Amino acid sequence: MCPFLACGALEASSLTNLTSMESMINKLHVQCRYASVVDGSSPGPKNLRHRSRANEATSSSEAGCGWIGAVGDLAKHLRDSCTHAEVECTFRGCNAKVQRFQLAEHEGSCEQREISCEKCEERVKASELSEHLLGCKLVFIDCPQECGARVLRVNLDEHEKECPNVVVCCLFADYGCKVREKRRKLGEHEEQAVVAHSRLAARCVGRVLELNAALEQEVSELKQALAGKTLQYNRTFELSGMTNQFNHSLMANSNQLKESLVEKTSQVRRLEARLEKCKRTLAAAAAPPYGEVSVTWKIENFSENAKGKEEIDSNVFHVQTKAGAYHMYLSLGFSRKGYAGLFVCSTSEEGGCTNFPVDLEGTSLTVEKGVLNLSYRFQEGQLVETVDDSLGWDDMMSADEIQYSVSRKRKERAFESNPVAGEAKPEFDVADFLEDDTLTIQGCIRLTPAEKISI
Fold it and tell me: Quick check: 408 and 378 in contact, CB under 8 A?
């Protein structure tokens, strides 16, 4: 806000950065914002005195920071060296902020610092040490069975195997005694229950004798069964001798049959190869002597592509014949005044068959442009003689055949209405042919290689 009320608010875009003024301000000397205040006076220009840069080190006194320096150096002083500036504790989880000269004292007692457990030397936070000691394995603890022993927590399981206050089963538990008593009292129980334990043992011995008798009976039955199986095995062994002789004879016959089968299989494969060769020969004999392919050449933006040129060519296409694949293309030319020509051409580009001449008999071409639909067909004996040769008509379409052209009719009417002395009627111009913007040529290209030509 401008101090002059009538001026109103200031816009940032209307202010000008005075570099020279900013440089002068940065050279002014000021006290640190954490400087001490003497006799109630506030720090300001009237209390300043110049110091050399050698005295920029700050005081660690609690009275305040004694730094005095240039305005431009104040931010760096507060960030890096002022002992009274507030800084954050470096330990993760502690959000305390203290003055820099108090930081070391704070971090020495910070609850988030890591310390080593005196028992197991594991590193834990100071605030978590008490909780850690409750589970530390190297801390001595009293036996939970209150036997009076103090053991390391890690050895508690071993101690309980011998602790006199642990409740255990009677030694005759396997015989049926269900008494559970502390280990130190178990001997007294065994002395008092001798008769009961004897009865339990006798009962178990009786059951063992019964089981023994049953096992002996089962063993006897198994022996009888084994004797029967042995007799049966002996009879089987005698039969196996006869079987071995039969198997030997069968194996010999089998080997002979295998050898015969291999020979027959070889014969069949040779016959199959001959049959396949005969099939290929018959297929080749039955195939037509020529190769044939259908082609559609549609020229979009015809006026733009053809105007000013003597010819335009189609993409190369391939005609597969017995002699090989011939690489061919169509060409539309305007070299003859008053006509548009169409040719079938061969090319040596991209390789291809070079067996020439080839006969174009049966090849047909249809030109569609606007309302025109002109068809042409090659007769026997019309040949493409060599590679890069062509055959066709340079007068495929004459001026008379395109008199439907609007622009041509406009020229003729203009001439008839206003003839100029000494000038003839307008002749065909390529511009007339280009008036319609799309030309389509449909072709059925049939090539007969030289060996099949009959002239």
Answer: no
